[in-house]
Structures are given as C-alpha cells and as structure tokens.
Amino acid sequence: MNITSAEFVISNSDYKKCPETHMPEYAFIGRSNVGKSSLINMLTAKNDLAKTSSKPGKTLLINHFLINNSWYLVDLPGYGFASISKEMRSKLKGIIEGYLLFRPQLTNVFVLVDSRHEPQTIDVEFMQWMGEHEIPFAIIFTKADKLSQAKIQVNLSKYKEVLLETWETLPKYFVSSSEKRQGKEDILAYIEEINSSL
Questions:
Q1: What pairs with residue 139 in β-bridges?
Q2: Does residue 1 fall inside a structural domain?
Q3: What pLDDT, in 10s, does the model give residues 86-117?
Q4: pLDDT at 83
Q5: d(Cα 30, Cα 142) in Å, to the nearest integer?
Q6: For the chain, is the Cβ count within 10 Å smaller at the N or the C terminus?
Q7: Closest CA to 141 of 57, 35, 21
Q8: Is 137 a domain residue?
C-alpha cells in the first residue's frame, strides 16, 4: 500500500463522538514511551502527523487520521500511564476501553511493544484482556534498531513462550524501527489485505 494522503480529522474523549462513517479503523496503542507517534509518522511518511514528545503519556484523547480517504488510523492513549493522577488514569482507562469495546468500525488493533525489553506484565495482561473480549489485534515490536538481531530474536522468543501459556495460536506480529523505516511495508500490506477482505 502506498499512502498518498493522511490528515488529522478529530480528537475525542468519547467513542460516541468519533466520525460517523463506515470506514474501517485501525487503532494503535502501547505503553508510554513505546514510540507510537514516531511509528505513525513513519507509516504515513509525515513527520508531524502525530505529535512526538520526550515526555511520555502525551496522547490523552482518541485521535482520528483519515488515510487515503478510505480508512482511519486511530491513535489511542497509552495503557501504561505516565505520572498522572489516579483520577486521570481512571478517565483514560474509560476512554480506551469504551473505544475498544464499543466502536463498531474498529477493524484491528496494533499493540506496540518495546522490543528492547523482555515480556512486561502490563503488556501481557493488556493482550490477555483483548483476547478475552475477542478484539482482533496484532503486535508491533518497536525500536528494533536499538539492539542486535540476535537479542531481538531472544526477546521475541520469550514473548512467544509467555503468550503460548494461555493462547493456542500467536497473534500476527511485526518488527519495526521508525529510525530505519523497518516494518513499514509489511504493516501497510497487512492493513491492505484486511481492507480487501471486508
């Protein structure tokens, strides 16, 4: 897939206020500082589409971006909340779960995981929650340029082991690097494949 247009449409704190269209939506979510904004900018070839920040946890709303006038890329708040109040954490949890559970246009969720780390409980628990609610998702391992191929494979193997303790089959996964544009073609091809089947 070649992205020829990508434009910001709207930000919301409530899934009920999201765009009223029948276009498929692909949501991106991950812990704070996982490189979500950089990945979105890399996929769309727009350096400032999603706002990057050195301070984690800046995405506090559901952000819709219209891609090629045919599908939406949705930037969700992170689930590994940055240093924010308990009240705000509760509010963000409601925003995320409301969208994931009740948004009929949601087609697939990309769960971003930092490839530099061994399986983190919060990531595994979030994927488990997704599975329990039958929400389709794929995993994107980010920041692959930060460590060797051998170390990446070690960490991927550990994730597979942990997930197979409760899953019969593994979800689709991708290895990416925003710096080196790694994984872009595979991720976009996957989205195109799903769109073609709808």
A1: 111, 173
A2: no
A3: 888 888 889 999 999 999 999 999 999 999 98
A4: 63
A5: 10
A6: C
A7: 35
A8: yes
Domain limits for position 14: 6-197
144 domain-assigned: yes
- CA distance readout (Å), 139 to 130, 148, 168: 12, 19, 16
In a domain, 123, yes or no: yes
Q: Which residues, 6 or more positions from 127, have their beta carbon under 8 angstroms from its beta carbon? A: 111, 137, 139, 163, 171
How many domains does the chain contain in total? 1
What pLDDT sits at residue 28?
97
CA atoms of 80 and 40, how far apart (whole Å):
18
Place of tokens 């920041």: 143
